[in-house]
Amino acid sequence: MLLLLYQEGPSTEGIFRRSGSAKTCKELKEKLDSGIEVDLACESIFVTASLFKDFLRNIPGSILSSQLCDKWVSVMDQGNNEEKIKSIQRLIEQLPRANVVLLRYIFGVLHGIEIRSEENQMNAFNLAICIAPSLLWPPVSSTPDIESEFTKKISSLVQFLTENCCRIFGDEITSLFGEI
To answer: Residues in domain Rho-GAP (predicted)?
Structure first.
């Protein structure tokens, strides 16, 4: 899934913004959940992007860990970019190893899309708006106003992570998928 998004996302206008066919997504999700092999290369890249966001939303406690939610939200209130990066790196160290590995690949994909934003219309801000709600959510539900404010803060964080992913995760993030 991530490899397809890495390969096709940068040249696809509106990737992560446009939804795939709900019927196709539902059918493919059922197949994937039951262990049936699916060739996503035969599907629309928008279906793959929708399935991937659904996968992220179904990670128990979120990939960034709802237990660390308050700390993630407060990162963007800190001083300069260096302080934010250090705080983010400390939070990443608190995540399970599998989450960190997946995050590196996610931000490798987002970085590849963002550097071709002139072509795909998906700069770091647009990507963050589309993907942030799938990466972190509060541990308890709240009022619509509080959820709206939370979404803005998390989107700002994801935008910062995307724009600074090489400094946060290391320069090798740009070559995680090898030469394709």
So the answer is: 1-169
In a domain, 179, yes or no: no
Hey, how many other C-beta atoms are within 10 angstroms of the C-beta on 135? 22
Q: Is residue 180 part of a domain?
A: no
Asked if residue 30 has pLDDT above 70, the reply is: yes
Given a cut of 70, whether residue 179 has pLDDT beyond it is no
Whose tokens are 């992560």? That residue is 16
Least Cα distance to 120 among 46, 42, 43 occurs for: 46
Domain residues for 129?
A: 1-174
* pLDDT tier at 178, thresholds 50, 70, 90: confident
Asked whether the predicted pLDDT for residue 128 surpasses 80, the reply is yes
Q: What CATH code is carried by the domain that includes residue 84? A: 1.10.555.10
